[in-house]
Write a structure and sequence with these properties.
322 residues, alpha/beta, Rossmann fold, 2 domains, seven-stranded parallel β-sheet, five-stranded parallel β-sheet, 12 helices, 12 strands, 36% helix, binds NADPH dihydro-nicotinamide-adenine-dinucleotide phosphate, binds ligand LL5AMS7Z, NAD binding
């Protein structure tokens, strides 16, 4: 008998057809709200779930006794309790690599947009306020030759640093759990303590995953170490930063500006001051959101799910099931 799966979110028709060849695609309302009887009914039958931003809780896992594989269409998996999955013999797969360059493109775009005040100055033109040459109060910051500090130097961190070092002649500092000697050689990057990086960088860019260790890694103390001219960019996860401290640092000039793709709460609540601040470029979590990359991520997640449910090795397993 075919195994059953829940497809949460969008796959293209060809990907759905590929899965339907091997598995029964369970009909459902698109919700994982286990307080609803119809959701519990579907979960009770499912062997695999594929989707992104899946709100996986122990209660949801209790409702899915046949579940063998979760295939997330993302590289990050901070919303998923991996240890709990492992305890229950459930495999988690994710989609690294295929999104690295696209995410790095957006990370560097945020460095440029926040550094050169692109959104703020485009607004001047849009609102018909460009009546004479702009003065120093609207001048921006150089990017080339400035020091780029990478907090996290994995796949995406390295790809952003590569753009900065090789394209813009930026000296690279990095703080990372492990040293990266090959990247030091390739990019002339220097590893240092986080505090040193914060004090010496002109651009600080966050690319660490959200974990217990990295939650609120950057708070009031860390902002106070940065240069008043520093530009802060976060494309990792909002909760790596104490958002109240970030807002305060931007409001009182502790740092100069920020480019943000991720927030403590997403979508941003209407009460957040961040989108209204002239020195903030705020985006709706879109670093990997190009047609090509979202397609590649979905395909990778489909491949992972199919392989894992067929008892073969998936391309990207997060945990190991004995
Ligand atoms: N905005 C968006 O749309 C996107 C956001 N992301 C986010 O980016 C994150 C990074 O992705 P990716 O680069 O592929 O992941 P990687 O695992 O390749 O890189 C993460 C790096 O962070 C380092 N690290 C982990 N924990 C710590 C710590 N406590 N202190 C210092 N360094 C640490 C790791 O060190 P080591 O090498 O030693 O293990 C690793 O080098 C994802 O987890 C996701 O949250 C990703 C894609 C799109
Ligand atoms: O935030 C996106 C991801 O892939 O992780």
């Amino acid at each position: 008998m075919k195994k059953s799966i829940m497809v949460m979110g969008r796959l293209d028709a060809r990907q759905e057809a590929e899965l339907a060849e091997h598995f029964t695609l369970l009909e459902h309302s698109g919700s994982l709200d286990i307080s609803r009887a119809e959701v519990r009914e579907v979960l009770a039958k499912t062997h695999g779930i594929i989707g992104s931003g899946l709100p996986v809780t122990p209660e949801l896992l209790d409702a899915a006794p046949a579940l063998q594989v979760i295939s997330t269409v993302s590289v990050g998996y901070d919303s998923i309790p991996v240890d709990e999955l492992t305890k229950r013999g459930i495999l988690l797969c994710n989609t690294p690599d295929v999104l690295t360059e696209t995410t790095a493109d957006l990370g560097f775009a945020l460095i440029m947009a926040a550094g050169r005040r692109l959104v703020e100055l485009a607004e001047v033109v849009k609102q018909g306020k460009w009546q004479s040459s702009i003065g120093p109060e609207l001048f921006s910051s150089d990017i080339h030759g400035k020091t780029l500090g990478m907090v996290g130097f994995g796949r995406i961190g390295a790809a952003i640093a590569r753009r900065g070092a090789l394209g813009f002649g930026m000296p690279i500092l990095y703080s990372n759990a492990s040293p990266k000697p090959a990247l030091e050689k390739e990019l002339g990057a220097k590893r240092c303590e986080l505090d040193t990086l914060l004090a010496e960088s002109d651009y600080v860019c966050i690319t660490v995953p959200l974990t217990q260790e990295t939650e609120k890694l950057i708070g009031k103390r860390e902002f106070s170490l940065m240069k008043p001219s520093a530009i802060f960019v976060n494309i990792a996860r909002g909760k790596v930063v104490d958002e109240a401290a970030l807002i305060e640092a931007l409001e009182n000039g502790t740092i100069k500006a920020a480019g943000l793709d991720v927030f403590e709460q997403e979508p941003l609540p209407s009460s957040s001051p961040l989108p209204h601040m002239a020195n903030v470029v705020a985006l709706p979590h879109i670093a990997s959101a190009t047609h090509e990359t979202r397609q590649a991520m979905a395909q990778r997640a489909v491949d992972n799910l199919r392989l894992a449910l067929q008892g073969e090795e998936p391309i990207n397993a997060v945990n190991e099931i004995a």
